[in-house]
Amino acid sequence: MTASPDPRKNRLLAALPDGEWRRWRPQLEWVEMPLGQVLYESGGTLSHVYFPITSIVSLLYVMENGASAEIAVVGNEGIVGISLFMGGQSTPSRAVVQSAGQGYRLKAQVMKEEFDQAGPVLHLLLRYTQALITQMAQTAVCNRHHSLDQQLCRWLLLSLDRLQGSELVMTQELIANMLGVRREGVTEGALKLQQAGLIRYARGRISVLNRPGLEERTCECYGVVKKEYDRLLPEKLAS
Fold first, then answer.
1. What SMART domains does the record tag this protein with (predicted)?
2. Closest Cα partner for 126 from 232, 17, 46, 234?
């Protein structure tokens, strides 16, 4: 049986004051988050919020014809389900696990009660929401103005920031769905990065060999998003 990780490996949970942490800890439920699991569908009512620890969740906007594109990624820096405490109850996006791992979830009612107390939890979650909105806006700009090569580098770097290692388990089809492009475009982009010695891609596994090289190759969008998260959120605890 897999041991459950420390909940405070998630930056938001780690930032909770002692009083809030003591209230939350007994109500946090450890969950496995397998690749491809849908945490919520577009228009669905949220029963829980999720705090990834070793997993990454992709927020996708799905069109009427089934086409989709990623609008943000959430990992151990954040929470999945902001519409719950922002007053919406549901959201037009879909949340899908893009990198398998573990996390914790908290019942919707508990989260709403904590948020409504207008204490430190409210301010922490609002700062996180501002950072997430920045990521969504920058993703939209990036998808409109930058090359697929740059978008792929940005996506890889954002994913790496939310993982402990340097390897992602990810099929080209899933990456194509995330970026809203044809699979052939992802194949070509990944091949370019591999030929440049930046990554190794085989059998659905992407190993990053040269992170500084990826940072040089990507557009400014990655730096804008990272700077905003670093500015608004508390530092990640040491492992």
1. cNMP
2. 232
Quote the domain boundaries for residue 185. 143-227
Confidence of residue 170 (pLDDT cuts 50, 70, 90): confident
Read off the pLDDT of residues 135-160 as tens digits, 9 standing for 90 and up: 999 988 888 888 888 888 998 899 88
In-domain check, residue 137: no
Residues 25 and 90 in one domain: yes
pLDDT band for position 237 (50/70/90)?
A: very low
Mean pLDDT across the chain, nearest whole number? 86
Residue 134 included in any domain? no
Number of domains the chain is built from = 2
Q: Quick one: how far is CA 24 from the chain centroid?
A: 22
CA dist 60 and 128 (Å) reads 18
Domain assignment of residue 135, yes or no: no
1 in a domain, yes or no? no
The CA–CA distances, whole Å, from 38 to 60, 68, 126, 139, 213 equal 11, 14, 25, 21, 33
What is the domain-level CATH number for residue 155?
1.10.10.10
Which DSSP state fits 43?
T
Q: Does 194 lie in the same domain as 100?
A: no
pLDDT of residue 233 exceeding 90, the answer is no
